[in-house]
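User: Predict the structure for this protein chain, please.
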Amino acid sequence: MMILSIIGSEPVFSQQNKLNTNNTGLAKQAEYYFNKADYKNALNRYLRLEKTTKGNDNSNYNLALVRIGSIYHNLEKEELSLTYLKKAIKSTQLSNDSVNLAYTFNGLGNYYRSKKIIDSSIIFYNQALEIFYRMSDFKGIAGINNNLANFKFSEGKCSQAISYYYKSYSIAKEHNFLQDQALYLLNIGAAYKKLNKKDSAIYYLKKIIENSNKGYATLNVSRGYNELYEIYKNNNQFREALYYKELHHVLSDSIFNRTLNEEIAKITTASEIQAKENKLKLLKKQDELNAAQISKQYYLILLLALLLLLLITLLYQLNKWKKFQADKFQAEITEEKLKTKLRLLENELLKEKNDTKSREILTMEILNNNKNDIFVTIQKLVDKYKSEKNDKILQEIYQQIKNNTRIENDWESFKLHFEEVHPNFFISLHEKFPDLTLNNLKLCAYLKIGLTNKEIAVLLNIDPDSVKRSKIRLKKKLNIELGREFNL
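Assistant: Here is the predicted structure, written as structure tokens:
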């Protein structure tokens, strides 16, 4: 029974929402008794607090509902506990009170755990844990992990329970929650004890004793002594068992005496608190007047803050617009550069196309010239054969070949292709120099596409020297000085 009681123990969660200046002495009294585990006096004051704060002080109203539900749970009045926790859920959700909503979820987890409805209990614990994580409430996080560990322990899953207990202890140690550290060490030790891992149990229980000077609760230290006594006794180490049993008795007597003194102090404190409550009532009206003044100041500050926010927003939008304009200008520059590059590329492609066309014209002329050479040769052979044999069929062949050796037709084909590449070339020449002959025009075209004297000679059926002389005569007609190149 001692072990189950220890494992079932839970740390008291810290109340995150601080009482403001308008909180009544009643709320302070209720918190005082609750933290002292004086549930009778605490319940009386929380019930009164519920009535006085309903509809005008959401924070304290929610606190009262959660605390009443928690007290009824500790007093094992579970149905009353559930009634108040349901009211707390509705109220905290309506008022967006995340802190008390988390405590409500924790209370519901405790309720369903007492009813052994495991799934529902874990769901509510996890919901509370999620809120505590979001609010960085490490004391709450450690407490929920301890509750989850209690579940595992009650199911006999001590190894899993130890994992949760150790997580709680690590958080408490990191944030210096002294009383909670002692409780979690006690729970770890008890879990190892149940697993029959004596050495591990002793290690963690002795850590409570070693750190008792840090301010650990005397009750937890006393329980640590008792746990060590039982471990040593069960392992027939009677000398050590007797030692820790004696320490447990001494500390238990001390706790009893201190409890008695605390009860006396409670009576005295209750009287003092009542006197303070009366004083607070007299100050309440003054507080309300001060609150009205503070409210005016608050709205003034809020207005200034809104104006500042508006100014910041305008400056931000202005900077955003300037950046947009700069980006737009840069984009236009980039686009213009791309267009320029595209035009250059198109010009290069056009030049390449023209060069290709010129080469095609040249190739066609050379092929035509070769064709004419072949026809001329055949014509000569036919002439020779004709003079010797006078064959009518050969005469007809001769006539057909003769009909197909018309250079004028080849020139017209060349001219057609040339003007596709250099439109209006011949018209412009004829307008400027109307005396140019057909041969002059041909020579100008061949010079335009950059043919050599030898290539021109082949096309015109003349020798290269004749081409040179023709170029000299052409320069005179075009008024080009001798020694200068053609620029057609």
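Residues 1-22 have pLDDT under 50 and may be disordered.
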